[in-house]
Structures are given as C-alpha cells and as structure tokens.
Amino acid sequence: MKTIIEPFRIKSVEPIRMTTPGEREQILREAHFNLFLVKAEDVVIDLLTDSGTGAMSSEQWAGVMRGDESYAGARSFYRFEETLKRITGFEHILPTHQGRASERILFSLLGGEGRVVPNNAHFDTTRANIEHSGARAVNLPIPEASEPANRHPFKGNMDVGALKVLIDEVGRERIPCVMLTITNNSGGGQPVSLGNIRAVSEVCRANGLPFFLDACRFAENAWFIKQREDGQKDRPVAEIVREMFDLADGATISAKKDGIVNMGGVLLVRDPDLLRRAGELLILTEGYTTYGGLSGRDLEAMARGFEEVLREDYLRYRIRSTAYLGDRLLEAGIQIIEPPGGHAVYVDARAFCPHIPPEQFPGQSVVCGLYREGGIRSCEIGSVMFGGGSEAPPMELVRLAIPRRVYTQSHIDYVAEVFIALKEKAGALRGMRIVEQPPALRHFTAKFEEI
Questions:
Q1: How do residues 321-330 score in pLDDT, each as one tens digit?
Q2: Among 187, 202, 229, 366, which residue has the least CB neighbours within 10 Å?
Q3: CA 284, CA 261: separation in Å to the nearest integer?
Q4: What would the pLDDT profile of 119-131 be if each residue is shown by its tens digit?
C-alpha cells in the first residue's frame, strides 16, 4: 500500500497546550533564546530530541509492574541481560542510567592526555567525555557527508583511508579505541553501511586496536542496510544487527533511542579486564552491576523495548514517517540533509538564511524562528553545539528529531506547514550572540541575545 500506517493503536493520550504568538515571544525571551530552557508545557510539538521521548508499549508498561527491585541479582536484570546477549552476542553487559554514563565509564578508562579517539563523527556527549579525559576526539567522515544535497546512500560512513593515515601519523599506541556512530547523528542521521563497519573493523584488527560502536540507533541503521546495501534485502534485520555487533569489541548504547524507553543505557565489552575495571567504576558512580543506576522496572522496559525495535513493520513505519517530513520540506524548496535520516530531518540552516554568517549562529536563529512561528521546539547542530574549538563544524544544521510512537501524521503536517511559513520570513531572521556559556556542552545552558 502507498500509505504506511502506524503499526500500533493509541490507548492513552496527553493534552497539548496551544500557545499564542504573544505568549511564545515572552517565553522565548525569558529563556534567553535557548529552547533547552523552555518548559515542556510551553511547547506545541517537541522535536528537541528523540532521546527518552518515545512512547512505551502496553507490554513495556506491564514490565514496569513486574519489575524486581532487589538491590543485587534481581530477576529483571537477568531478563535484560538475556535479551541483550541474544540480540548482540556480547557476553559482558553492564546497565547504566543512560548512554553518556556508558561513555563516561569507557573513556575514564581508555582516555587520557595525549590519546586520540577517531570516529566517523562524535556526537556532543561522546566528544565531551573524551575531551574531559584529556584525549582528543577526531572526526573522519567521508567527503559526501558535508554535501547536503548529495544522496549517497551511506553518508554516515567513516573515511577508512583517513583512518589509516591517522593511525600512521599519531601511532597506534596513542589510539585507545576506534569508534563508529550508527547512525551518524551529527552528520544528519545518516546510516553506516555493513561494508564500512566491516572495513573499519578490519583496520582495527590489523593494528591491534579495540573497535567500539556508538550504537544508540543500531536497529534503524540495520534497516537502512537492509533497504540500500547490495545483498542485504532478504536478510532479517535481527541478523544484520547481530553481524554489526559481531564485528565490534564493544559498544555504548543509549536505550533512550532504539531501546524505546525513557531512561537507560548499556555498555558492552568483550575484554574481561576492561569488564572488571568498568564494573568497579560502575559500582563507584552508578550502582551495583546488576542495576547500574536503574530501577528493576527500567530494566524490564528496556528488555522489551530492545525486542520491539527489531520488528520490521515498526522500522518500516519509523523510517518512512521521518522521510515523509523530509520530502515535504524538499518539495517546498527547503534544503535538508539528503536523503532524510532515520530519527530526524536536518535542515541546512546556512541555505535557509544565507544572510546570517556562522559566527552569528544561523541554526539557532532558525530554531527560535520555528518556536515563534508555531511553538515547535528543535535543536541546533552547528556552531553552537560544536563551535568554540579549534575546528569549525562543516555544516550549520537544525535537527527535527522525531520521538518514537508519539506524533501522528497530522502533527508532522503541522511541522511542515510551520517551516514553510517561516521560509517566507527567513530574510527577517536575525543572528545571535552568546552572552553567557559554560566551559563544555554550552548548547544546553548558554544564553543568547539577538543581534
């Protein structure tokens, strides 16, 4: 059928407060033009992030009621562990309260002064945790990744040649691990091919380097592999997922994405010594190794969510619903990162308002414009999030991250209509300047004013 319907029914609803333009103007100014500082109740459609914002299923809520809250050895942990072992093939599985906790533990152990961690593209918390340890985070995307209109099917791929050059330049002894983000969040939600995962894994094996996946959206990446990569269309998604993990020595996962839960994370490792040290740090900072800072009900919901995300009718709907928004914006002449990504649509803010230079944060201007126009909350991914360092980000983007199983087609039509209306006023958007910011991850709490 032409129409791909939601493979679920809605049995609980939450009201949305419809704000007026005057209210939104006051709210925006009181939040110092930073949408992270706006109360959720003042947002009409919330596309700030897809992390922890999804709707849980009836089976997940049933799991919440079954949660075993024993401090150690709870049956909820063993159900969670068995599920992750079956899906990923990893024997050593540590729960954490979210993905950045997994990253902090990993790079507290592997990072340090003088070390270098390559990735196709580090996202914000990954980079921050690496740099907090004293190490340097290096992005090695393929050239096509920075070309918004290029419809390369796997723009999330790592430049394998550049990885080999980096290893030769800095020396393998300075590289504690190589990471690959699937899908590539800061690069437009673009997928990584199975061939590229295999090629990166082979380079790591040849150089004796541990290979880790940032696998927050592993199921969505596997669906793209099934749809776009030669020889993969007849394979079950679960089989592709298993091969992806089989190629890696470890992984960090925010279960708030493809786990379809509101809180939770995972650290996967193969090395028993790294497991021991990570477990000690987990106990010190998160909780005992069988709960990792989570309740038993969280572990139950995670176990069920990781199973549900592999359903191919769900993935077909998920990816198509994101592409639907991207296609509508393209038809209206709004340049996005093409083709549309898995969890979000990324608008090229530089093309949307070419009169605003990067140092005046065009993405932040568009984010504020969307909120003014229709109460939509989105996220800047450009010179605010990744600027302030020695390297300027390659693109100025606005991410429209779509929560899982939350919004209907009419909500998405509204988003498109608001963006199209804003396009008619794009020339009136004003640049921004930062008036207050923290030393790291400034996009969360920075305060702005219009120029």
A1: 999 999 999 9
A2: 202
A3: 25
A4: 999 988 899 999 9
Question: Which of 28-62 are b and which e, b meaning 16 or more Cβ less than 10 Å from the residue's Cβ?
Answer: beebebbbeebeeebbbbbbbbbbbbbbbbeebee
Residues 6+ apart with CB under 8 A from 65: 297
Contact 155, 144 (CB under 8 A): yes
Q: Are strands 447-450 and 432-436 parallel, antiparallel or unpaired?
A: antiparallel
What are 349's two structure tokens?
A: 């803010």
Domains defined for the chain, CATH in brackets = 21-50+311-450 (3.90.1150.10), 58-308 (3.40.640.10)
Strands (E) in 54-162, as ranges, are 92-96, 116-119, 136-139
Cis peptide before 183 (omega within 30 of 0): yes
Asked whether the whole model's pTM tops 0.85, one would answer: yes
Report the C-alpha gap between 391 and 387 in whole angstroms.
7
* Angle, vertex CA 50, rays to CA 48 and CA 229, nearest 5: 125
For residue 231, the 8-state DSSP code is T
CA angle 207, 211, 217 (to 5 degrees): 155
